[in-house]
Amino acid sequence: MSELSASAIRTDQPIKESTRWLQLIVGIVCMVATANIQYAWTLFVPEIQGTFGWARAEIQIAFTIFVLVQTWLAPIEGFFIDKFGPRVMVAFGALGIGLAWILNSQATTLMGFYVGAAVGGVGVGCIYATCINNALKWFPDRRGLAVGLTAGGYGMGSAATILPIAAMIKSDGFQETFFFFGLLQGGLAFIAAWFLRSPKSHEVKASSKLEQSRRDYTLKEALGTKLFWLMFSMFIMVVTGGMMAVAQLGVIAQDLGVKEFEVNMYFFTMAALPLALMLDRIMNGISRPLFGWISDNIGREKTMVIAFTLEGFGIIALGYWGHNPYAFLILSGIVFLAWGEVYSLFSALAGDAFGTKHIAKIYGVLYCAKGIGALFVPVGNLMMEATGTWSSVLYTVACMDLTAAVLAIVALRPTLAKHVAYSSDLLKREQAAAAAGQPAPAV
Fold first, then answer.
1. Are 97 and 48 in contact (CB under 8 A)?
2. What is the pLDDT of residue 264?
3. 395-423 b/e with 16+ CB inside 10 Å = b?
4. Distance (Å, rounded) from C-alpha 120 to C-alpha 101?
5. Collapsed DSSP state (helix, strand, coil) of residue 224
6. Interaxial angle between packed helices 17-34 and 174-193, expressed in degrees from 0 to 180 and rounded to the nearest 10
7. pLDDT at 328
8. DSSP codes joined into one string, 160-214
9. For the chain (length 443 residues), average pLDDT per consecutive 10?
């Protein structure tokens, strides 16, 4: 018999707000400590290439391996989250992210960096999946905001360390930088892990503003719905452009001739690339809670239309005006602002549609879309080399963003409404069958 969720979200007992907000803060700390494996990678690529002379595309395979491992193991990690709980999973992940950077610090071959990327993918995947899962469970009434803040920790977490990492690479070399920050970040996440726990049923409450399924779907049931695969396809479309920007921004800046341009901000002067990276991380971090909060109030689908359209036109503008260093700064910030929200909107929508009892496994499969998007990162280099311009790459991913924006309103909105209505009817029939001692109706 399918599991029912009528008692999964209680509203008749008081909720101690400080408890769940503390859990949210701890999750954010863990995400901040994890962020640099993905978001600081672009700083290391030119140094690795200059030291060993490998082609960019060969080096960027490491980034693809990292993302593939991080995302495609998420369903398995979801199983272990349910089995062992958040503390053990995050502590294990912390050891992984620390070891990954230490391996990178000692690597002298491409295979060495590939192994480090794989280990880092496991570590980041464990921490990311666990903290997102915990936020979804603690805040069913504010999923967009809670997941946005948690994912924002990952998106914005590297903002404070971009400049120290860049400075240390310049002064001590990239190997020493990998080693030092590996120990620092891994140790911080390991300590924070032991403060995490899952909520009890009386500690959470449902949203009064959004349509949410009161039925907990199993992974098999979720995979059998049209809604899941529509979300999966849209996730791939939108995440591809952002992944391209994350991995290639340093290379794009170099090819556009703006990497070393000194930007005079009156109070200080900074090269365009590190300034762009710092601003982009901030915008990426703001994006997730901002759009998450908006979606809690106006709905996920309408918010997707706004964000995906903004990202699409931002990427088109970056391809057209990116040679201007000031335009490069502004437009790359817009791209990151409009991209970061995918990690709050799709995870919150998954919780709304399928419940939270099995959300670690369900969102784990949905999150694999990020891995598919990562496959296009090396392809972006090949496209640029074939056409001689980044514009062809940027215009391609912009079209994908705008297609997803259209789908959000013409396909996702009606499909979600039908799914929630069906879930409500199915839950009533399952409860009636259970009360009568009869088999549950087929899903």
1. no
2. 65
3. ebbbebbbbbbebbeebbbebbeebbeeb
4. 8
5. coil
6. 160
7. 83
8. HHHHHHHHHHHHH-HHHHHHHHHHHHHHHHHHHHTT--PPPGGG----SSS---S
9. 41 66 94 86 90 89 88 87 90 96 94 96 94 90 90 76 87 93 94 91 69 84 96 92 71 73 66 75 83 92 94 85 83 83 90 89 89 78 77 84 95 94 87 78 70
Pairwise CA distance, residues 289 & 146, whole Å: 7
Write down the pTM of the prediction: 0.77
On whether the CB atoms of residues 155 and 374 are closer than 8 A, the answer is no
Q: What integer pLDDT is reported at residue 407 of this predicted model?
A: 97
237 contact partners, CB below 8 Å, separation of at least 6: 400, 401, 403, 404, 407
Q: What are phi and psi of 345, to 5 degrees?
A: -70, -45
Tokens of residue 310, six digits: 């903004």
Q: Rounded to whole angstroms, how far apart are CA atoms 199 and 182?
A: 31
Residue 207 pLDDT: 65
Three-class DSSP category at 262:
strand
- From the list 209, 153, 192, 138, the residue with the least C-alpha distance to 35 is 153
- Structure tokens, 376: 């296009």
Chain centroid, CA 39 distance in Å? 11
Task: Name 264's bridge partners.
Answer: 269
